[in-house]
Specification:
Blueprint: H1 2-32, H2 38-60, E1 66-72, E2 77-81, E3 85-86, E4 94-98, H3 105-109, E5 118-127, E6 130-138, H4 148-156, H5 172-178, E7 185-190, H6 196-210, H7 212-218, E8 220-223, H8 227-233, H9 236-239, E9 245-248, H10 265-272, H11 275-286, E10 296-301, E11 304-309, H12 310-322, H13 327-351, H14 363-375, H15 377-386, H16 392-400, H17 403-409, H18 415-421, H19 434-444, H20 449-480, H21 492-495, H22 498-508, H23 513-518, E12 527-530, H24 538-547, E13 553-557, H25 571-579, E14 583-588, E15 590-591, H26 596-609, E16 617-618, E17 627-631, H27 636-649, E18 656-659, H28 662-675, E19 680-683, H29 685-688, E20 693-699, H30 701-706, H31 711-719, E21 722-731
Parallel strand pairs: 2-4, 7-13, 7-14, 8-9, 8-12, 12-13, 15-16, 17-21, 18-19, 18-20, 20-21
Antiparallel strand pairs: 1-2, 1-5, 3-4, 5-6, 10-11
Bound molecules: adenosine-5'-triphosphate.
Length: 743
């Protein structure tokens, strides 16, 4: 059966190579097409993007192209793989069925009890284009399926530091979630290692397959907690043939801002509170000024002093606010009504008949006054001082820099909280600022007149350059072809007009949809996957909901792992303000990462976090119990290095994580690196979230707990990172509290 599968696999790869060749040839052909009008260019663009996507998909499925076979009771045979491939020699019969197609589903869900008409399930193991193993599960003999060895091999494999896809071994409870046809918000709650991240990414791939056109256009966004995590999961979707997905942290979701500033946890918590939405709104209102009590609005125009009383200004401001337009879009209205009021004041002053008090001015005179005032730079400056054009960065920077503005915008925060927000000269943005910038952008709106004018000017310039280029081409044509010997040769000038050439230029700038989405704050994503979702603050949720007006979301996380002080205490609390109770909860219950020995220890910590929670069930034992290493306090760093080196030496390519309190990471990094130069990471529990290692050294667990209000959760995260071995390192004079102290 090995040879038979090898033969089949070779045939599949031959066909894959042929498809790659065909796709590239078609892409070249499409890209080379010339002489197209507006419509033709747009169509060419769409066709090229589709072919380029297909070429990328075909390239990315080289490894593990086919991994399974189903023999159905009626004799039908289905090979299952990363993509679907049809046979061009027969009547386009499927040679390989995409794992996401309904016909592949029994591969994941058939059991001895519910066979789904499957007689035999075959797991095919490959290396490159070679079959290295075949293993069958027979459903006919009523025997217990034995097929889990493919799963156990995957779980026991050494970790590379990059997450791998699980397409060959998806388990039934995971498959249910991946293929759930729920269109709205789906929350996947599950303990550490239950495959939440894997499931969320495979669900994204499944949705892209099922709604290819819509989601390619609207883009799927995957949100993760930090850059390390995004790097860790970055290979999974490409290995499933999906490249047009945007991976980002919330801090990266405000185009034009790099949020790299680190802030104290209490400031992060404060900025994440829902109250901040009101603070930003009040900060915007605070920038819509009127003269102080007892003062007037005054402006000198044409040598004359004009003024309005405070009440008039208050009325105009109220009217401008009543438009309910964002600040920058209401601004022209404010300005218009202020100018009208000034014009009225001016005409009253100069044009009143001294005899009967009536107006001496004609309508045309009044119109002239309005026009003059509108064009007056002094008037514009004075009105702008009351209602200035603002961008989000300026609004927030000026808010953080001013105790007066903070006091006006945040009366509900206490003195210490306001002081925590105060920042002095601008030092850049933190990830917690991004949702506030986004909030501000919503309230300010864009006054994009300047941008539009710039775009028009740019286009005119491009046209001019194109015309110049064509003129040069035309000039050279007369010298090149003046003898008329080669009339069939066409010059650029014959083929193109300036406008087309300018458009070509624009297309050279053509970016993928995902990049376009990344650069556009107002992009509406077709589906949003949020991983480690428990970490997001209420303000971050507001931002994400804005990015996904359709509310088509897969949210995965574990409330018991919430470490961020601004993070979620419950899914209800997170989601109610945005979707009410219109969301569905799915749970994962099996722990695929931890061996049972470590899972037991982690479960004891979980009970201390919340006695009501049940830890996920581990599926395998490692045969090694977690243990602890007491050392003299001064030798922690050296011991961490020694242990990391010993653990690293146990694997050939696997990885070791040294997880320590944030304050110790810097001190440990040097000695650990000296002892174990590669395949070892030193990190704090927050950064370790979502990652996994073959072996983990947890350093000073009691300090991890003491370091933060959610310290026990952080310890739980640290203990649940290993796939095989766990050692706890601590100061010999201070044995850790139970349950770790009991080891
Ligand atoms: N069906 C499966 N087949 C093979 N490996 C699996 C399967 N399900 C999960 N795994 C593996 O188990 C490990 C844990 O999965 P994953 O990281 O998705 O869990 P998680 O629930 O997101 O964990 P955490 O809450 O700690 O972030 C990963 O190595 C993943 O590849």
């Amino acid at each position: 059966m090995h040879d038979q599968e090898q033969e089949y696999l070779t045939r599949l790869y031959d066909r894959l190579d042929a498809l790659r060749g065909e796709t590239r040839a078609r892409l070249d052909q499409v890209l080379a097409s010339t002489g197209l009008g507006h419509q033709g260019l747009a169509e060419r663009d769409v066709a090229a993007a589709e072919l380029a996507g297909r070429a990328a998909r075909l390239d990315s499925v080289e490894n593990g192209l086919c991994f399974g076979r189903l023999d159905m009771r009626d004799g039908e045979r289905r090979h299952i793989g990363r993509i679907g491939i049809l046979d061009d020699t027969t009547d386009y019969e499927p040679l390989l069925i995409d794992w996401r197609a309904p016909a592949a589903r029994p591969f994941y869900v058939a059991t001895a009890v519910s066979t789904e008409n499957v007689r035999r399930r075959r797991h095919i193991r490959t290396e490159g284009r070679r079959v290295t193993g075949v293993q069958d599960e027979e459903f006919d003999r009523g025997a217990e399926p034995t097929g889990d060895s493919a799963l156990f091999d995957a779980l026991d494999a050494e970790r590379t530091g990059r997450m791998a896809d699980i397409v060959a071994t998806i388990q039934a409870e995971q498959d249910d979630i991946i293929r759930a046809d729920h269109a709205g918000v789906l929350v996947v709650q599950g303990g550490p290692g239950t495959g939440k991240t894997a499931v969320a990414l495979h669900r994204a791939a499944y949705l892209l397959y099922t709604h290819r056109e819509r989601l390619t256009r609207s883009v799927v966004l995957v949100v993760g907690p930090n850059a390390t995590f995004l790097r860790y999961i970055g290979d999974v979707l490409p290995s499933l043939g999906e490249t047009g997905v945007l991976l980002a942290t919330v801090g990266e979701l405000f185009p034009g801002v790099r949020a790299e500033l680190a802030e104290a946890p209490e400031v992060v918590e404060l900025k994440g509170r829902l109250d901040m939405a009101e603070v930003v709104a009040a900060a915007v209102r605070d920038r819509q000024r009127v003269p102080e009590e007892g003062e007037r609005f005054e402006v000198v125009h044409d040598g004359e002093r004009l003024s309005l009383d405070r009440e008039t200004c208050l009325r105009i401001r109220a009217r401008a606010r009543e438009t309910r337009l964002p600040h920058n879009e209401a601004r022209p209205w404010f300005r218009r009504w202020m100018i009208e009021a000034l014009a009225r004041a001016a005409s009253e002053r100069y044009g009143t008949d001294p005899l009967d008090g009536g107006s001496l001015l004609t309508d045309a005179d009044k119109e002239t006054i309005v026009t003059e005032l509108r064009e007056s730079p002094e008037v514009a400056a004075a009105v702008d001082a009351l209602w200035p054009a603002l961008d989000p960065q300026r609004l927030l920077a000026e808010l953080y820099a001013s105790p007066r503005r903070l006091a006006a915008a945040a009366p509900r925060l206490d003195r210490a909280e306001r002081a925590a927000l105060l920042r002095g000269p601008h030092r850049g943005w933190s990830p917690a600022d991004v949702p506030l910038l986004d909030e501000a952008a919503e309230l300010l709106g864009v006054d994009d007149r300047a941008e539009r004018a710039a775009a028009a000017a740019e286009r005119a310039e491009r046209l001019r350059l194109a015309q110049e280029a064509l003129d040069v081409a035309y000039g050279s044509r007369t010298t090149d072809f003046d003898d008329g010997d080669e009339p069939e040769l066409l010059s650029a000038y014959d083929l193109l007009d300036a406008e087309t050439l300018a458009e070509r230029h624009e297309e050279a700038d053509h970016r993928g949809q995902a990049q376009r989405a990344a650069a556009d704050r107002t992009w509406a994503f077709g589906h949003v996957v949020v991983d480690e979702a428990q970490e997001l603050s209420p303000m971050a949720w507001r931002l994400l909901m804005r990015r996904c007006p359709a509310r088509s979301m897969t949210i995965v996380g574990d409330i018991a792992q919430t470490g961020d002080p601004a993070g979620a205490p419950s899914w209800e609390g997170v989601l109610a303000p945005h979707v009410g109770d219109r969301w569905r909860l799915a749970e994962l219950t099996v722990n695929y990462r931890l061996p049972s020995e470590i899972a037991e220890l982690a479960a004891a910590v979980l009970r201390r976090i919340d006695a009501a929670r049940t830890a996920p069930r581990a599926v395998r034992a490692a045969g090694v119990a977690p243990w602890r290493e007491p050392v003299p306090a001064g030798e922690l760093a050296a011991a961490a290095g020694r242990l990391a080196a010993a653990e690293r030496a146990r694997t050939t390519g696997g990885r070791v994580g040294v997880i320590a309190p944030a304050g110790l990471v810097a001190a440990l990094a040097g000695p650990v690196r000296a002892a174990a130069p590669d395949r070892v990471d030193v990190l704090d529990p927050r950064t370790a979230k979502g990652l996994e290692f073959d072996s983990v050294v947890v350093v000073d667990p009691d300090r991890i707990v003491a370091d933060s209000p959610r310290g026990l959760n952080d310890l739980y995260v640290a203990l649940t990172r290993p796939t095989r071995r766990l050692v706890v390192l601590h100061d010999a004079a201070r044995p850790p509290s139970p349950p770790l102290g009991d080891l």
